[in-house]
Write a structure and sequence with these properties.
nine-stranded antiparallel sheet; 3 helices; 28% helix; Alpha-D-Glucose-1,6-Bisphosphate, Chain A, domain 4; alpha+beta
Length: 140
């Protein structure tokens, strides 16, 4: 589900139902010490410092992120820092639903047309994989 709005590439994950309260999901996403367990095996050099983290995706890029917004039990936004190869955000939207929660992950990035063509499928897989791992974390 990728689209471009005024130069910004937006790639949305599937909407996932997770058997956990919104507060538990929010607390996990709002603390970078937990985020590395949601990332693929190709991630190395994981470092956390307060509201910022950095890591390397083998054979691809060094990424630096900060938590730029926390709306309790509703939304967490990670924003790229200068060390990343392009500007982007990962937006996690959480919706409480009695005993479970619905969640989506959205990639919003400033990708040039060539990079967008190359990165669209891997980024779609990435946002869906993060939610699969999040679901596994809470339901296994």
């Amino acid at each position: 589900m990728g689209k471009t709005i005024r130069g910004m590439t937006i790639i949305k994950s599937n909407r996932e139902s997770i058997g956990a309260p919104a507060e538990a999901i929010f607390n996990l996403l709002a603390d970078y010490r937990n985020f590395n367990e949601l990332l693929p095996e190709q991630v190395t050099n994981w470092k956390v410092s307060g509201d910022a983290c950095s890591f390397t995706i083998k054979g691809m890029a060094d990424i630096s992120l900060k938590i730029s917004q926390r709306l309790p039990n509703t939304q967490v936004i990670y924003s790229s820092l200068n060390a990343s190869p392009f500007s982007f955000e990962l937006v996690f939207n959480i919706e409480a639903n009695s005993l479970s929660s619905f969640i989506t992950c959205e990639f919003r990035g400033d990708l040039n047309p060539m990079l967008q063509m190359l990165a669209k499928a891997p980024l779609q897989n990435f946002v869906n994989m993060i939610l699969d791992r999040l679901k596994f974390h809470f339901e296994s």
